[in-house]
Structures are given as structure tokens and as C-alpha cells.
Amino acid sequence: MRFPPVLHIRSRPRTRLTALSFCAVLICILAFSSSEISEAQGNVIDPGSAPSAGVRCWTESSATEVLPFETLLAAIYLMNESDQPRTVTEEWDVFQFVLGENGERTYYYPAGEPISPVSPDTSIVLNPREVKTWITYFDFFYDQHDKHVFTKPGIVRFATSLGSTRCGSMTISVTQPQGQDARAYEFLKQTDLVHYLANRAPDRWYEYNYQTVARLETFIQQFPDSRYKEYAELNLALMWKQGVEGKVDLAKATDLLTDLSKNGHDTMPARALYYLGDVAKQKGDWVLAQDYYQRAIEAKPDPYFRILTQEAWALPPGNLLLPKGVGCGTFPSAREVLPFETLWAAVYLKNWSNEPQTMTESLHLLQFVRRDAGGWRYYYPALTPISPPPSRELVVLQPGEARTWLISFDFDAIDKDPRLRFASVKHVLDRPGKVHLVVTLGGIRCGDMTISVTQPQGQDARAYELLKQTDLPHYFANEAPSRWDPYNYQNVARLEAFIRQFPDSRYRDYAELNLALMWKRGVEGKVNLAKATDLLTDLSNNGHDAMPARALYYLGEVAQQEGDVVRAKSYYQRAIEGKPDPYFRYIGEDKVRHLSAERKDHQHGH
Predict the structure, then answer these.
(1) How far apart are CA 211 and CA 121, in angstroms?
(2) Which of 91, 289, 404, 605 has the maximal Cβ count within 10 Å?
(3) CA dihedral over 272, 276, 282, 283, signed as positive or negative
């Protein structure tokens, strides 16, 4: 088997060794057999200096015991434990050393990873309690591809530092394989197949082919109950994910990873779930990808994969690759809302160029929510019918052509994608704080939004405390009467009591709006357009912010329901002139267009 020389490794596309923004971890490894422990205890490496005052650096490994030829994964943390910002200045370059049997230090770096030029000193500013993380791993030496850090049973002790800042030391026991592991180990010592059990093997030993696949499949069949089999299965899945002799087979990758996610030992299921998320993303299924990442986090992965998964889960879904001149954006009704308020938004896809633009995409609207330090979750408005996503098709946008979609954020769906486990009716804007929202059209990201959910004050605060104890917020949601059905006179009485109790609250606007829509739709079969008109008229005169324009829009619908098209069009026009949010501006303009077209058709018919 031929491996790429070091110069070739340097010229390959850069592969990230670290998880976040810094690219260097100084690693010093002390390796010695169990019979030499006492002699080596005096040879303690001091790779650098102690951290700055108030700053702590430590290392967490994936295990304290490994089998020979297993990869050890590790995460390194740098934390400001003080109550003041701290600045740490280092080279932040990767230096790794192994202490040999005679005490000499040998340069260590994972085989197959690119080597970057030495960088100048840079400074990290750590805010109080802030933590920055790096990831690394230990298996084969870059300049001795046949030499593994954990070749035989014994003890391996390594120390880590960031630049010259010490980050602790750890002792790893390389245990004697037993049973089927022992037979697999004896086999691996006689073959180069062990390289394909290493971390991210297909990225590093890129000269694999169908013969390599066949050898791994045979190994899996020969040692089905061995821990080594899991590493073979994992890297075989990654080969199919990346492509074998140019052929990608995501179905085979999914089958292998699914088996590992259910039957793997220790943290292997979490690793498999992480890669299942990557496979789903590769397929363009952002919903399923986010779910796999969430499941991987819940499966308690090792520190290395926890960081990778958190990073992947926190990345906004979708991509920004659009034809030149085509833009996609999302425009919300507000950037600040109260808890339990509905956020409306309009999504626009427009060709700004002077030429027709084409793309192949499934123009299926997907919404994602992320709160605090968590990952992205698929969101769908509760009790809204779910249509099957359209297939990918050729989309042609003429010069200046724009397409519009309307969305809202309030209660999460209880009837969303059946592949997903996370189903609830919790409001996504239920408490003060920052909420991040992303909307995609198929795989096209149409903008990231950060919404501030503000702390209610005065009468709003008292109303909020009441709402937290009741299901009444459901009747403040967008188009509530068409979603929370059946409602009845008891619901009407509760909304009327709320309006009387909190007459000056913003929440009162939502209660009044949806009470009007109940009467417009019918309460226990009885429609009362006069009551609906009175409530909407009051809102059009006294509502907060964009609420008057929304009330005018619904007054137009009431007029249409009464058969008065002229008055309806007048209301819609007034709603547009009332500077509504993008959602209601679009539906108001759409109503005006339709009524104008119907009038022309009617005149033409006569």
C-alpha cells in the first residue's frame, strides 16, 4: 500500500484539525510500556508555562482505556474563570512530540493531515466564563505511516498545551484485547488494513478502491462481535459517503451508520448519528440533518464529537449558492416581540438581473429555530396542514420576476414530519431572550433573523403572568380560529374577560383580533359579522404598531363575506396605505389585484 509523502500532504486542500477558529494545539505525548512506568516518572515534560491568572486550560479525552490501534480523540478547553476579560497571546501552532524509549522527543503529527506554515502570535480575548475549544486526535504518525501511537498494550501519557500554555496531562491505558478482539488484533498486526480503522480514514488514506471496500467487508464478517469491526464499519460508511472510485452511495452509507447508531459500543452510536446528519445534509434534507445532530447530542458523545456536532447543529441550515443576480430574503413583521406574540414574515425570491436565471430546486418552505446555545430545530406552525414537499425541478426566473411566500412563527407543530421525534405545542417565542430564525426554500437559505423577545412591562407583565398559567395564548396565534377548533362560547367569554382585565395591554390586541375572527368564522355555528366588524373597527383605530393595518385587512374580508366588493377593496387599499408588516402588505395587495381582475372580467363579460 502506498501513502502520500509529506510534501504531497502539504499540497492537499486544507483539512481543519481544530473545531473552531484557532488552528493550533501543542501536544506533547509521553509513551512508554507498563514495565517502564517507574523509570519514566521522573521524565515529566514541561511543554510550556502555566495559564494566565484567572485562565484555566485542560484536556478531556474520549477514553482513559483503549485497545491497540484505536484512535484516541480529545478536546482542549481554554476558560476564563475570572470576572474580568483576559487576553492570552500565543503562536497557536500545532507541535506534537512523542518521548521514545531512550527519552528522546520525536515530532508527532497525525498522518495524512496538511501542515500549515507557522503563524505569528495572535491574541485571544476571553470574556468572563467564556470557553474556547479545540479538537485533536492520536493514531498514526505523519512521517511513519505504519507506526501507531497505541500499537501494543501498555501505558501512554501525554500532555497538551495551547502555544506555550500548559493544558494538563492524561494517562491512557492500552489494554490487552480479549476474545474476538484479540483475534482481530493479531490479524491487524499483519496487514495495512488497520489504517482504514483510523479517524476519518477516507479523508487521509485517499487511495482506497473497491478492493479496499471488499477487504473491510470481509473483516466485518470475520469479526462481527469485535470493537474493531465498528471502526471498519464507520470508515466503510464514510467511503461510500465520499465516493468509491467516483461512485457515491448514500444509501449504503446510511445503512451502515444506522446499524452503528443502534448497536455500537460506548460513544459509537453518537458518532454514527453525527455522520447520519452529514449524510442527510449531503442529500439536501436539512430537516432530517438537524434531527440527527440533536439526537447525537442527546446520545452523550465523546468530547471530540460533541464539539463537532454542536458546531454542525449550530450552523444555519441551507446554503447561499444562488445564480448570479438572484436574491432570496426574509422580512419579519418585527425585530422585537413580547412573549407569546406571533411573528409574521414574507419570503421573497427575485431575479434582479436583466437575463433569465435558472436553478434546480424544490421550492419548499422550511423554517428552523435556535434558542440560546442550542442547535437548529425544524419548525412548523401547529395544526397547519402539511403538504408533501415538491420534487426538485427546473425553476426559471424572468428578469425582475419575484416569487413570494408567507410564514408565521408561534406554536410549534404537533403533526410535523413523522420521521422526527421532537413534536410539541410549545410557543417558540414564549419567554424573554434572543431567538434565531432561518428560512430556506429547499436548500436555499433565505436569510437569518435574530428576534429579541422583550421583558413585558406594566399591564403587559401582569397579562403575561396570567397567560403562562393558561392555554389562552393559543387563541392569540395567527389565524387561531381556523387552527384551535373547536372553540365555543366559553372561549369567547374567556377572551372577553381578558380584554376587560387588560385593556391597555398589547396582548389585548391579539385577543380582540382573534375574537373578531371567531365571530367572522362562526361560534358554535353562529356567524356574527356585526360583532366582528365592531371589534376590528376598534382595532383599526386603537391598535398598537401594525395591528390597525391587520384589522383593516380583515375588515375587507368581512365586507367580501357580506358581498360588498367595493367596500372590501377600499378596506384592502386602506390596509396597504396603513404601512402593514410585509406579510399583511402582500396579502392585501394580492386581494386588490384579484378584485380588480374580477371586476375587469365582469365588465368584459357584459
Answers:
(1) 46
(2) 289
(3) positive
pLDDT value at residue 90 = 73
Q: DSSP state, 128?
A: T
174, 201, 234: which is the final residue of a domain?
174
Long-range Cβ pairs for the range 455-462 (8 Å, 24+): 456/338, 456/339, 458/504, 459/502, 459/504, 459/505, 460/338, 460/505, 460/506, 460/507, 462/502, 462/505
pLDDT in tens, 30-89: 544 433 333 333 333 345 667 778 899 899 999 999 999 999 999 999 999 999 999 888
Residues 463 and 511 in one domain: yes
- The reported pTM is 0.80
Judge whether 249 and 240 are in contact, CB under 8 Å: yes
CATH of the domain at 26: 2.60.40.2360
Please, which residues have CB within 8 angstroms of residue 412's CB and are 6 or more apart in sequence?
A: 369, 379, 380, 381, 382, 423, 424, 425, 426, 427, 428
Count up the domains in the chain and report the number. Answer: 4
**Could you tell me if 385 and 339 lie in one domain?**
yes
pLDDT grade for 114, boundaries at 50, 70 and 90: confident
* DSSP calls for 192-259: GGGGGGSTTHHHHS----HHHHHHHHHHHHHSTTSHHHHHHHHHHHHHHHH-BTTB--HHHHHHHHHH
Range of the domain at 44: 6-174
Provide the pLDDT for residue 548. 96
Question: What is the 8-class DSSP label of residue 473?
Answer: G
Kindly state whether residues 551 and 589 are assigned to the same domain: yes
Q: Clarify whether residues 122 and 186 are in a common domain.
A: no
Same structural domain, 38 and 148: yes
**For position 224, which CATH number holds?**
1.25.40.10
CA dihedral 371, 339, 485, 287 (to 10 degrees): -10
Within-domain flag for 320: no
Helix ranges restricted to H, 5-46:
6-11, 37-40
